[in-house]
Amino acid sequence: MDNRTGKRMAVKRMRCQSSEQLRRAQKEIETHRELSSHPYILPLLDWGTKRIPAGHIVDMLFPLCKKSLRQEIDDRVLEHRSSPWTKDELVKLFRGVCHGLKAMHDHSPSWAHRDLKPDNILLDHAGRPMIMDFGSVEVADVKVTSRSQALLVQETAAEHCTMPYRAPELFDVPSDVTLNARADIWSLGCVLFAMMYGYSPFECEFHGKKVVVVECTHLRVIGRLPEPPEELKRYPAFLEALTIAMLRKEYKHRPNVDRVLRELDTPDTPDTEPGSQRSIQNFAQFPPV
Fold it and tell me: Which ranges carry the Protein kinase domain (predicted)?
């Protein structure tokens, strides 16, 4: 607790026993410092590093938030301890997440979060989302030119990117490819699906009206999306279409975060009601990147 203001704080303590762990902790501090003024990024209030015989201890001080988006999804979608979000509430919350991610992608050089998921999005006491946990952050645009480099990127993703939210291009990285920020768009699509149905589409199945958790595998990620039953579809069809667009296997055909925000800001039309057929063609093609 801050003795001056009476506000409660949260301390994140990291025990770094290798130079790579220390580098990632320092990168997390750098990212927070660069973006702390953004309303949808968790602000870093203070930090410190202490050397110990086994390495370093890095402490980071943050404001104490109400809960994570994961906990809010559990309350509203799975456990029904709170009423489900209305369409406007869900769109407002998701729009905030998109703005936080946009701040990272607009940074120079562009940053990719690489582990965006509901657990890494906190909600303050007003319900505003704030992205956190930047230990996985990398420069977004990575040109891979060799098999050894591809394996390194792949191994780093396996260590730092949670599987049900990990983009398919990070599972089996080609030896000649340029990766970019649209890996985060895949994760964003998984987050939106989880806000509507409780889980990432790659860690659940639908058995009637029941959502069943299953093991996430690479085959699930590259397979077909599970189809939610009509009884569980409570949001406008354009949100379903936008989710499908963000989860395109070919990253060049996913929208960037600016396009996602434009779609969220598009006024409602009569064909945006649940179960309607708002044209998915709106999301069918995006300029190659």
Answer: 1-269
